[in-house]
Design a protein that fits this description.
The complex is a heterodimer.
Chain A (H helix, E strand, L loop, with lengths): L5 H7 L1 E7 L2 E7 L13 H16 L12 E7 L8 E9 L2 E8 L2 E10 L9 H10 L4 E2 L22 E2 L3 E6 L14 H20 L3 E10 L9 E6 L12 E9 L5 E11 L1 H11 L5 H7 L5 H7 L9
Antiparallel strand pairs in A: 1-2, 2-4, 3-6, 3-10, 4-5, 5-6, 7-8, 8-9, 9-11, 10-13, 11-12, 12-13
Helix pairs in contact in A: 2-4, 5-7
Chain B lengths: L16 E4 L2 E4 L1 H4 L2 H6 L4 E4 L13 E4 L9 H15 L5 E4 L6 H14 L3 H11 L7 H14 L28
Parallel strand pairs in B: 2-5, 3-4, 3-5
Antiparallel strand pairs in B: 1-2
Classes of the chains: A alpha+beta, B alpha/beta.
Chain lengths: 318, 180
């Protein structure tokens, strides 16, 4: 029941090759328990790893803060991070921050600019708070992939979060699992990256009614929080916007707050969805899944019925 | 033998009643409150409410015991409950709850105190009532529990008597299904 702490687990996936004042070079491997969709690293997990590389470069561990907070992590996810493949990772200082990159050969998989922020994080508005107080435990629950780092109920290393949603909000109250505790008792920052990306994905998917991917993830981390503080992750559906005339690329915003509404982190995700993604990803939601729950989220997709009706995918229920 | 933790009971006014340092009973309302769960350090919950839609918080382990009150199948769930609590105690205290915290969850607690703290069934029941006076397991549950342990033959029968002469058990039990 007890797992290796996630901070150590992330560090164990990194093999340091060289480090100096001018930068750091390493390899990083995403294991299957860090997957999002099958066969690829979770977008929030990749973002968390990009930040972890910076923490490693600066010698930060647990609550021994070396990267000033609040800090902004602007990640671009160029392509899926393959599992069980040793990838090149680099960190270099840049003006007022650090650039963290993960590459396969010379092709970038993901990169993030990490910069200290001048001001504090903005908490949710009182209007959003009131809306959530009215919603509390109601709404529907999104379906999930069984082994996903964020939503997989069969991934013991994961967060196992399945968000609630109604017409107004997407949210979840949760308590970080013990393995997300850093040695000093603070919450592993990667946790906030994972849930921040996950809620952004769902805000986008619910808006579009299709599956997709997060290709830009911005997470702003406040001061470290204790790992055993309950958190509320909250995003407003009306705040999901697009500048794409085809309505396939969406900007989402969410906050992760402590019970006194202090933001532990905020997350902005760019979600790109399409019918093609739905066709590819939908079978992942089926094993053990609730057909009605999947149809509510992806109402436009006729593939839902087809996939559920194909008996081959019914195995493996939770 | 040290039966159970050293007897310092805790009652904190939020509906959580600790039976030992790492085992508590509550009603559904208290068990549904994440702040209450967190304040007491619960990382694992046994849910015997037999209701769909109870809040489930990521970060807390849940074990369902889908039984009505009463339900003679109680004994089918006992090995699983004991095993779950044994394992979950590594993470922190474990909360047992049903709807009211009167019948089903205390019945399960009797079994755990008996198996892991060496208490007779009656001593376990008395101990639970001393911590949570509203407790009144349905008489059918008590009979099922007594029969279950008699059949296992691991404990002297005198430690399994839940219906001693001159004492009526299952106060409040009316032999009909209710929502406790």
């Amino acid at each position: 029941m007890s797992l290796q702490p996630m901070e150590e687990y992330f560090r164990d996936r990194i093999r340091l090759e060289a480090q100096g004042a001018e930068g750091m070079r390493a390899t990083v491997t995403f294991t299957p328990d860090l997957q999002g969709p099958p066969e690829a690293g979770h977008g929030g997990g990749v973002t968390g790893m990009l930040f972890e590389l910076v923490r490693l470069f600066l010698g930060e561990r647990g609550g021994d803060v070396r990267v000033p907070r609040p800090v902004r992590i602007d990640a671009i996810l160029h392509r899926e991070a393959p599992l069980d493949v040793s990838l090149l990772a680099t960190v270099v200082p840049m003006e007022s921050g650090w650039l963290s990159r993960i590459l396969r050969g010379d092709r970038p998989i993901a990169e993030a600019e990490v910069r200290p922020m001048a001001g504090p994080l903005t908490p949710p508005t009182s209007e959003v708070r009131r809306a959530w107080e009215r919603s509390r435990e109601g709404g529907h629950e999104v379906p999930g992939y069984e082994f996903c780092l964020a939503c997989g109920l069969r991934n013991p290393r994961g967060i196992q979060v399945r968000f609630n949603y109604n017409d107004r909000l997407v949210w979840k109250r949760l308590l970080p699992q013990p393995h997300f505790r850093c040695e000093d008792g603070s919450l592993f920052p990667g946790y906030l990256c994972i849930v921040g990306d996950e809620i952004g994905w769902w805000l986008g998917a619910l808006r579009q009614g299709e599956c997709g991917l997060s290709n830009r993830v911005t997470v702003c981390l406040g001061a470290p929080v204790a790992h055993d503080v309950p958190l509320l992750i909250l995003g407003e559906r009306s705040a999901v916007t697009t500048a794409d005339p085809k309505g396939r690329v969406w900007q989402t915003r969410a906050a992760i707050v402590t019970p006194d509404w202090q933001p532990a982190a905020t997350a902005e995700v760019q979600f790109a969805g399409s019918r093609a993604f739905t066709k590819v990803m939908l079978p992942g939601f089926v094993p053990g899944g609730d057909r009605a729950a999947v149809e509510r989220v992806f109402p436009a997709s006729k593939a839902v019925g087809e996939v559920f009706e194909s008996g081959a995918l019914q195995a493996g229920g939770r | 033998m040290v039966w159970f933790w050293n007897g310092e009971g805790r009652r904190d006014g939020d509906g959580i009643d600790f039976l030992t340092a790492d085992l508590a009973v509550a009603n559904l309302e208290a068990a549904s409150d994440l702040e209450v769960l967190t304040r007491h350090g619960f990382r694992a919950v046994v849910d015997a409410s037999n209701r769909d839609g109870n809040p489930r918080y990521p970060g807390i382990l849940y074990h369902d015991v889908p039984i009505a009150d009463p339900d003679e199948r109680l004994s089918e769930f006992l090995p699983g409950v004991v095993a779950f609590i044994d394992e979950a105690r590594q993470l922190g205290p474990v909360l047992l709850h049903c709807v009211a915290g009167i019948s089903r969850s205390p019945a399960l607690a009797i079994c755990y105190l008996h198996e892991r703290h060496g208490m007779s069934l009656l001593a376990a029941l008395d101990h639970i009532r001393s911590r949570r006076p509203v407790v009144a397991p349905h008489p059918l549950f008590l009979r099922v529990i007594q029969e279950y342990y008699l059949q296992r033959r691991l404990t002297p029968p005198e430690q399994l008597d839940l219906f001693p002469k001159g004492r009526r058990q299952g106060v409040g039990g009316n032999g009909q299904e209710d929502k406790r």
